[in-house]
Design goal:
Layout lengths: L7 E7 L18 E9 L5 E3 L4 H15 L2 E7 L7 H4 L3 H17 L4 E5 L17 H15 L5 E6 L16 H6 L2 E4 L31 H10 L7 E6 L1 E6 L17 H4 L4 H4 L63 E3 H6 L3 E5 L5 E5 L4 E5 L4 E6 L4 E4 L3 H14 L3 E5 L9 H9 L3
Parallel strand pairs: 1-2, 1-16, 2-4, 4-5, 5-6, 6-7, 7-8, 8-16
Antiparallel strand pairs: 2-3, 9-10, 9-15, 11-12, 13-14, 14-15
Helix pairs in contact: 3-4, 10-11
Family: Belongs to the glycosyl hydrolase 18 family.
Protein name: GH18 domain-containing protein
GO cellular component, one term: extracellular region
Length: 441
């Protein structure tokens, strides 16, 4: 792959936003690539769609993007679409069939690349997923077949965790260099770290600045180090950026980074408290003195990362989405439709929890509204909203935190960034513009 003269700017366009946000409304001048999400492998290793309108939506997206000079990849899989990846790559015959079916779709829709979003090789992911200890080695074998099947101009990418793929022993594989030869790039999914939990934690940590996170492997900087140390080229890493956050019932004063009771449901989380994973934390000459800090002036002095105020709603016993309060104290609570309590940045603005402002230098800023106070978590370099009246904490990213991540990606030499998803931004594109400005685009 030819090295670009500047970082690549990319974004996901999911099929479920077609009615509210037609592809023709995308400002393609802001994006080099758009990933259409998702096509889903079935038990016969053919690609299906979650929505009957998805094929037509993809055709419209490709037409509009190509007219503007932007390229399109089809993303295959996703959290609920990864059930049949394992058998699809398990044998030489299946790999050939799967690759051939992908090629057919690639040609039908005049695509420019394929993105594999397998969540996840070697472990379960969503309920009902099929998986095997041989997934990672079989995945590599499949990618070689796919590389030989697609046109030489086609780009192949993948969305991955902040740790390398798991091997047959349940640990991250120590050497990913062969994957670096078949992928044009991979996207580090630096989001959903804590989701909607009580006590609340950051959605997308830039780094573990307080050196005390219970999930030290789950940050942008740790992910870059882990993949580079495993032999994957830094120049083929893309940082995933979220345009969404999570709402949780809480009255915490700060975000949690250390929570001894919390353990993941899978083996790789058990390693995140071990020295084996702590050694992947940023440090030394690789990072130098890359800048901490922010311009918001509302740091909560979170120097210990301990679990907040421990007041109502913070029992610390049951991580996961919790019912949101009606309106206990006269504030304006944020209402979410998503069962995971996920909320897009644009929805926070539309519901008045965030209000557009301007800094002294004229830069776009968003401050708390509707009874919400914007605070800053210096351990993760992300903002959060707190409303005592509504009994809610909202962990999210905004123009400031995304600019920090974008500048980080550029400064350390990553290939670029990819936003999930384009529709989560404001109509004015305030998130992507902050990212572009930070990368001096």
């Amino acid at each position: 792959m030819d090295s670009p003269q500047r970082p690549l700017l990319m974004g996901y366009y999911p099929d479920w936003v077609g009615d509210q946000f037609p592809p023709e409304n995308i400002d393609f001048s802001r994006y080099d690539w758009v990933d259409f999400a998702f096509a889903v492998p079935n038990s016969q290793f053919q690609l299906e769609w979650d929505d009957d309108e998805a094929p037509r939506l993809l055709s419209r997206l490709v037409a509009a993007a190509h007219t503007a000079g932007t390229k399109v990849k089809l993303s295959i899989g996703g959290w609920t679409g990864s059930k049949y990846f394992s058998p699809a790559v398990s044998t030489a015959e299946n790999r050939k069939t799967f690759a051939s079916n992908i090629l057919s779709v690639y040609r039908t829709y005049d695509l420019d690349g394929i993105d594999i979003d397998w969540e996840y090789p070697g472990h379960k992911g969503n309920d009902g997923n099929l998986y095997s200890p041989l997934d990672t080695s079989n995945f590599l074998a499949f990618l070689k077949v796919l590389r030989a099947t697609l046109p030489t101009t086609a780009k192949i990418s993948a969305a991955v965790q902040t740790i390398p793929f798991l091997g047959g022993d349940g640990d991250p594989i120590p050497d990913t260099s062969e994957f670096g030869k078949v992928f044009d790039w991979i996207l580090l999914m630096n989001y959903d770290t804590w989701e909607s939990t009580s006590p609340p934690g950051p959605n997308a940590p830039l780094y573990d600045a307080c050196n005390n996170s219970t999930q030290p492997a789950s940050s942008a900087s740790a992910g870059v180090v882990a993949w580079v140390e495993s032999g994957f080229p830094l120049s083929k890493l893309v940082l995933g950026l979220p345009s969404y956050g999570y709402v949780q019932r809480s009255s915490s004063e700060r975000l949690i980074t250390r929570w001894h009771q919390l353990r993941g449901n899978h083996r790789w989380h058990e390693h995140e408290d071990s020295e084996k994973h702590h050694e992947h934390q940023p440090g030394g000459d690789f990072w130098g003195n890359w800048g901490h800090g922010h311009s918001g002036g509302d740091d909560d002095d979170n120097d210990d990362g301990s679990g907040g105020s421990g007041t109502s709603g913070d029992d610390g016993e049951h991580p996961g989405p919790s019912p949101l309060p009606a309106n206990p104290g006269g504030g304006t609570p944020v209402v979410v439709d998503d069962s995971d309590n996920q909320v897009q940045f644009r929805e926070l603005v539309e519901q008045g929890a965030l209000v557009l402002s301007r800094g002294e230098d004229g830069a776009i800023q968003y401050v708390g509204g509707g009874g919400f106070e914007r605070r800053w978590d210096s351990c993760s370099e992300t903002p959060f909203l707190r409303s005592t009246a509504s009994g809610q904490i909202i962990t999210y990213d905004d123009p400031e935190s995304l600019a920090l991540k974008a500048r980080f990606a550029k400064d350390v030499g990553m290939l670029g960034i990819n936003v999930f998803d384009i529709h989560g931004d404001t109509d004015g594109g305030h998130l992507i513009d902050a990212i572009r400005d930070a990368m001096k685009m």
